[in-house]
Amino acid sequence: MFAFFILYLHPLKHIYTFMKVKNNRIETLKMLISSKELGSQEELLQELKQEGFQLTQATLSRDLKQLKVAKAASMNGKYVYVLPNETMYKRVRSTQTAREMLESPGYLSINFSGNLGVIKTRPGYASLIAYNIDNTDMPDLLGTVAGDDTILLILKEGSRRESVIESLSAIIPTLKD
């Protein structure tokens, strides 16, 4: 009730700013879980603090619940946080911070076979890119299926690869065949 009262008093631009900060925090949290073996909320809070996010354990707990984060045994037997669609629970070793990873594009490559295309992305990016593809009018595509780091494109019969790449480049500016 108190939170609603505060939001009600603020102009809409403050609500937008609040949501933007939350969305950035959620994306950073997903990147951290995908790139590091973190086994406790304390470790997550420390990593988020290094990325510039100050939040309480209760807020982190709500974010983890929203993301449907689980714990699973890693290769060394330690229980770590995993995102729900990371079936192999793979980790990306990176010297970049989560913020640097979020600022760089998620697209890695595209390949075709018949009326199928496969887009490879960095871990955690496939569903976001597929969502943007599915919500854009692309006459050459029937749809997509996304995993954690791979998108399957289903092309209409007779579609030209060049036409598909041209349409996709509006969503993925760094797209190269």
Whole-angstrom Rg: 19 Å
Lateral strand order in the biggest sheet: 3-4-6-5
Separation, N- and C-terminal Cα atoms: 52 Å
Q: Assess the beta-strand content as a share of residues.
A: 15-25%
- Mean pLDDT over all positions: 78
Shape descriptor: elongated
Q: What is the β-strand count?
A: 6
Spans with pLDDT under 50 lasting ≥5 residues?
A: 1-18, 86-92
What oligomerization state is this entry in?
single chain
How many helix segments?
7
SSE-based structural type: alpha+beta
Question: Strand-and-helix sequence, N→C?
Answer: HHHHEEHEEHEEH
Sheet with the most strands, sense and barrel status: 4 strands, antiparallel
In percent, how helical is the residue content?
40-55%
Describe this structure in words.
Helices cover 43% and strands 19% of the residues. By secondary structure, it is an alpha+beta fold. The strands form 2 sheets. The protein has a 4-stranded antiparallel sheet with strand order 3-4-6-5, with helices on one face. A two-stranded antiparallel ribbon has the order 1-2. The N terminus is likely disordered.
